[in-house]
User: Fold these one by one.
Assistant:
Number 1:
Amino acid sequence: MEHAIKQESAFVGIETSKLLLKAVLLSGGEVLCKVLENDVAGYRWLRSWLQRNDVPVMGLRVCMRLDMPYSEAPARALADMGMLVCDAQPAQLTDYLRGQGLPDDAAHGAVVLANYCEHKRPARWTPPSPAYVELRLWLRRLHAIEGVRKQESVRLNAHLQAGQQALYALLRQQIACLDAQIRQHETAILEHVRRHPGLPRPPELAGNYQRIARYSFGANLAGGQ
């Protein structure tokens, strides 16, 4: 293990956003930066860019913030390419920043993630199971429908107060349809979890969907990937 660690000479930190990836490569005393699109073509360009800089991608340690939005897709893609994707945990990263005399808001920067990757050598990230990914997608869809229902409820009250009876009646029907969709999603989520016992509690359940959490997960089951 020590021998393998000593052989590592290149490290990458990646900052993610909805549309773009900012990658910083530390290699041979150089700091190189590349901005790419956050899509399949961008992931391939990243691999090509690394190879053009004489950096083997197999086993290359790449550090990301997997708790940030839009980070899981590139993490999966890079892991499939053979890179050793690492998750910079917020608590450990905060300790590192304080030790370096850096402000906490620097934790999202690609150059900080690359340096953290080199100094701390975080453990390999294990991609979540397909069943867990599907559960999170179900929950996000449920959240989106509930958001629409809340907006429509506000409009419903406005129509009632304005005496707009036709609009009020139409919107009541639409809200009833949304309520039916919400019940269908909740039932599907419960069935999915029961088909896949032992799934971790997704972060989307935090403070929400108590019926799902109560009947689907153990009370002492912590969140995680």
Number 2:
Amino acid sequence: MSFGDPNNPYGQAPPPPQAPPAGYGYPAAPPQQPYGYPPQPAYPGYPGGAMMPQPQMPGLMQTARVFLFIVAAVQALGGIGILFIAAAANDVSNKSDDTFGHTVFGDIGHTAAGILFVLAFIGLGLTALSITLGVRLSKGRQGVRITTMVYGILGAVVGVLALIGAANTHSSGALIWAILWLVFGGIMAAAMMTRDGAAWFNRPRY
């Protein structure tokens, strides 16, 4: 088809050029976002989103946790030591029975050994409790908080009683142990009673 003389200004205009198909020398146009609706960011805590920052344990509670592990170590050493003493007392009583027969001294030795065995197992049981509370402080809930609070109060009471006994006997070593026990128990109980401590156990879990 002819469109006349191209130099004639009154001739018929040629048709406009056709747009090249997508992918033929030109990239396809990106999809347009709806007007007024910007792209939404990913929600935190979900795949592709930023994780929520984890809260940090309060400083006083971290101190209480260290004290729990120290108390557990002391209880373990004390329990094992008492266990060996109880075993030695029982052996001496058995030898006394074999040598002199059934005597009052043998009965006293067996009774003392039995009491020491009970004290040793109590100490080892408290060791397990102290370690469990120290570990569970990071993820525990109100049950751990209440148990640690009661545990610290009882420890402080024992420290006060030991302090009175050390003052009456004028024993410097017992006085130091009593003060340490009182401080440890008081800090453990106070850490659970503070507002930061309560907020730590009531924090949301992600």
Number 3:
Amino acid sequence: MPHIELRALTDDHRDAAFDAVSASRSSWPRGVFEGRASFDAWVDRPDVEVYTVSEDGRLSGVAAAMDVDGDREILLAVTPDAGDEAPTEALRQLTVREAERPLYACVSVDDEPAHDMLARIGFVEHERDGADVVYVLPPTLE
């Protein structure tokens, strides 16, 4: 299995991060940008935490958490050449970093790989919103 880790996005990696998001086939609505300027504006928001997904030292995607309507929501975008393990492992690591629960994710209704990945790590369908499905990782009892 390749070594997957999340790294804080630095200015030196913004170009590669934008390219990774642009190349991603995933359809997480909050990961769609009209261009580089809208990506940079999103990254610079104070409520957004952006990480690069590193796969054996190579940038293969972006994972992020942000505030949406008072809730914490995550997103993930990986390049088409990322390994099969990269998305799930990156999402696992992101949910560990984002301790707030409930934690939400919104994906396109037709993005089957994303639905499967979210279910594997404990997210459950919360509601449908048009062409999107909202998932939630509920709080756990200790």
